[in-house]
Amino acid sequence: MKKFLALTVLFIFAMLAALAEIHVPRASADTKLPEPQTSGGMGLFEALKKRQSAPGGDFPTAPLSDAELSNALWAATGLNRGETGWTVPMDRGLPPYVDVYAALPSGVFRYDWKAHSLADVSKQDIRSKIGLQNFVASAPCSLIFVANAESLAAIKNEELRHQFADVAAGAMTQDVYLAAASMGLGARYIHSIKEADIKRELSLNDRDSVICLMLLGK
After folding, report:
1. 149 CB contacts (<8 Å, ≥6 apart)?
2. Domains annotated on the chain, with CATH
């Protein structure tokens, strides 16, 4: 009888565990990034002189270090003064309305500019699913720039929302280009993307829009 009860209890726990695995989503984990470099390094005009798009056919495939990824993401949209100042301009000083996701071999992560950390989005390697060119899949890091519809709702004019999102993404990608040049990384802006696939893989809102990719490697 005792053996039967023990087996019954184990069976119930196993069933509960299975149900939890099916119905309860995995909690998102945050990974704190190293503090970004905010002084020294290559001068601005030297970085401008070296800014270029790495060739797609021979894109560098060595992975970035945590420090290099930290610097690139901070350059894209990090806090650079107080709690409401960013490395790129935002309409009327609104919080950033273009999100940055990092697609890496280990999964997909969303950059949290407040905490300078990575929020776990997916454990899937989606790099082969996001761009139309074959070399996108081999880039060790793809930054995905997404216009966040909820954040953009603060801009009442719908036409201006698209314009300001595009302007923000342009400033963000240029900052990444300059940061890459200063660190000796390869970078390439990608406009030819698989938006429907990206939105599905990132579980984005239907009203969100994917603007572009930035490939990084060394």
Report:
1. 205, 207, 208, 209
2. 28-217 (3.40.109.10)
Which pLDDT tens digit goes with each residue over 148-181?
Answer: 999 999 999 988 999 999 999 999 999 999 999 9
- The pTM score is 0.86
- Within 8 A by CB and 6+ apart from 8, the residues are none
Distance CA 147, CA 168 (A): 9
